[in-house]
Amino acid sequence: MKEMMKEYGSMNAMKKPMNAMMKKESNKYLDTKSGSIQDVARQMFEKEHQIVEVKENDIEKMITDYLKKGGTITKLPPALAKGMKPSDMQKYKVGDKGVIKSMKMKEVRDFVETYNKHFLTNWAAEELMLEKRFEVTDYYFSDMGGQVGLTVVVDAVNEDQARKKAEPKIEKLRNSSLANKMRVDDPTGDDMDVDPTNRPLNDTDIDKDMRP
Question: Which of 46, 107, 121, 182 falls 20 to 30 Å from 25 in CA-CA distance?
Answer without folding.
Answer: 46
